[in-house]
Protein 1
Amino acid sequence: MSLWFDTARSHRITSLPGHLRRRAPLLIDVLPENDLVRHHVNLSRKNLCVDSSFYPLGSCTMKYSSKAGEAAAAERGFFQAHPWQPDTEVQGVLAVLAELQADLAALTGMDAVCLYPAAGAHGELCALKAARQYFRLKKDTGRLEVLVPENAHGTNPASASMAGLRVVVVKMNSAGRVDLPDLRAKLSNRTAVLMLTNPNTLGLFETDIESIAREVHAAGGLLYYDGANLNAILGRVRPGDMGFDMVHVNLHKTFSIPHGAGGPGAGPIGVKAHLAPCLPGPYLTKSMFGHVWTPAGTESIGRFHSAYGNFLNLMKAWVYLRLLGDDGARRVSLAAVLNANYLQEKIKQILPVPYGAGRCMHEFVASAQTIKENFGVSAMDIAKRILDEGIYAPTVYFPLLVREALMIEPTETERRETLDHFVALMKLIVEEAAAHPDRLHDAPVRQPVRRVDEVRAARHPILK
Ligand SMILES: *Cc1c(COP(=O)(O)O)cnc(C)c1O
């Protein structure tokens, strides 16, 4: 059982100097394969995941992760490539990175793409630091404010303050979109960046985006597109064309690579040409010898991740785009928006959808407020009850604009039968809330872990 610790094989990497190679076998306890497999299969069974069930976790874009991507990332040439191998030995790896950069630039309408950031929040931090550097180089150092709408994802204000910038909250209007007069009042020569998610977290497109972009630029600020979730616009509308200067995309959302336990994520950023010199280096360039790493110039904010970034995940996104083909991206957004609207219309017959008068984009937000008032059953109770039916729960209590929020995002990878099954279960659960509210308070009863006491967990955490 030395499959993973085959020292003889690793010694075949001839470019590793002799004095750095292992001289004795690695001493690691080994288990029989069956014990190891059973341990992991049993652990995985305690979890609901996209491979086992529908996972309508709004804003998180839990789409199916194709196994073709996993297979490609497990190819030895990719998976055993060492970050410090000479460029000439890893041309295939570098070609994947270069092509992915070009694909993401084309899809977002940006001039330069940086693949280093390891998550959406990491991308936000990276781009905001680049923006700060941009203003520093222009000697416009008074711009330290980041405008963030009140329904923004929590990472936006967190990243802004990590980048040493001040957060200014912009109000939303009654239609669930940026309140233009409030935005105008908050724009000034202190504005560095407006961060915007479009479609926003209510699943609504900011129809005023062109005037928003014009006004922010007129005030001397930059526009940042939180493209963690690009599913609604993929192949149709590009942040760069809407007037944005910077964007991050979550490969673990829109581009289908696994989230969380599936491995680390990846949150590449794209910028327009005026910000490109501030991006972290080294840069991937093309020379007569093929792809090479080139050190960044003095305008760069420096390194943001070791080596190539989370390469194997970048690889899976590259495969996803190859599987989609040229117009596949357009079919992704078509199906994602169609699925969300289909579900919104069905769910509206069961629960109120406060901003659901018109069409939604890739997701929508239902409210359990009336159920709570009438039967004492909360969004959390409903979410826990769905787990017992073997389906993961929608996002709850976000965005804060909707009380008892249940944020639902089906993604493009689910078929109609699955959506209908979910609707039937939601109907059953809402009926149950009226007839047997305690069943919902007690849920889940059929999962390996029952309802956790969140207050106690926070007050008396057991960390090991
Ligand atoms: C998920 C998400 C993020 C954060 O991405 P992480 O990879 O979890 O850091 C930021 N903004 C929006 C809109 C998101 O949905």
Protein 2
Amino acid sequence: MNHKFDRKFDRRRFLLHAAKLGAVFLLGGCDRLSRTAAFPSVLDAAEGLTRRVQHWITSEKGEAREYTEADLSPTFPSNGSTNPGTDEYLALSSDGFASWRLSVGGLVERTASLSLSELRALPARTQITRHDCVEGWSAIGKWKGVRLGKILEWVRPLPEARYVVFFCADSDEDGLQYYESVDLEDAYHPQTILAYELNDRPLPIENGAPIRLRLERQLGYKMAKYIMRIELVRSFSSVAGGKGGYWEDQGYEWYAGI
Ligand SMILES: Nc1nc2c(c(=O)[nH]1)N[C@H]1C(S)=C(S)[C@@H](COP(=O)(O)O)O[C@H]1N2
Ligand SMILES: [Mo]
């Protein structure tokens, strides 16, 4: 690892730690809230810390808050990789991703290979949501895409499949490929989409073209950009560093609840 990367990583660790302290503070508020709302204490005891915090910030349906056009950030920033820059990616982007295919495989009854126009032809979902990055910024954007659940319904995960792993086109200076994973509950969540539009325009390269994951109840680093391949697995312990994601392999939480 080079020095520049180390420094950036230290800053991210610090911010993540601060974010966790924030979550503990939220939990204090949550406890007070549940007591005043007289939730059965047995329910309180049964639920883990993350879920309690989650329930407090999300709606009763367990969905992340959605906003209106008036709330949109003037510009949506980009962070992390802003262009995978490989020959393969350049070739794909030069013709508007016409020859790009999303391959879906692993523990499924039938594999899929979907073009961008095939994805666009599937029922779409649009949502205006807030993106929170551990580096300390947030932005509200309008995302359009296809529900990951729709694609899973088509490939039919085998009973032993427990996680969905996303493999991306970009790698860091040490050659480590970006990847991420979610469990099936998050994969089938109605707000979990493979987005191909941002703010009514084709997803820009900086934000993950041709498709990126939107996983609205978790932090920005979970939302894989430049997705090339999706795999259903029983466990992610044998994928890359074994912790379920590029940043997770470097110490971040696998479940990055907001
Ligand atoms: N493939 C890939 N996905 C990624 C990243 C990345 O570097 N590569 N960065 C993550 C982080 S830390 C954040 S905050 C968001 C940033 O998304 P944006 O560029 O659209 O703002 O993408 C996430 N997904
Ligand atoms: Mo981030």
